[in-house]
């Protein structure tokens, strides 16, 4: 059963992650987002207590 042989698959997995971390990840991270998030105004909301009719 060849799928139980770990040697070639572990090497392929290791090289794939190495390529991702060293080559692709900096290229992906270098792109700037077009919609940068902005800070929301911290306004406090005036809340009124609920008036219960049975109290």
TrEMBL record:
Pfam family of the protein (one): ATP-synt_8
Entry keyword set: ATP synthesis, CF(0), Hydrogen ion transport, Ion transport, Membrane, Mitochondrion, Transmembrane, Transmembrane helix, Transport
InterPro entries: ATP8_metazoa (IPR001421), ATPase_protein_8 (IPR050635)
GO CC aspect terms: mitochondrial membrane; proton-transporting ATP synthase complex
Repeat recorded as keyword: no
Keyword set includes Transmembrane helix: yes
Region (Disordered): 35-55
GO biological process: proton motive force-driven ATP synthesis
Location(s), subcellular: Mitochondrion membrane
Family: Belongs to the ATPase protein 8 family.
PANTHER family registered for this protein in UniProt: ATP SYNTHASE PROTEIN 8
The protein's name: ATP synthase complex subunit 8
Gene that encodes the chain: ATP8
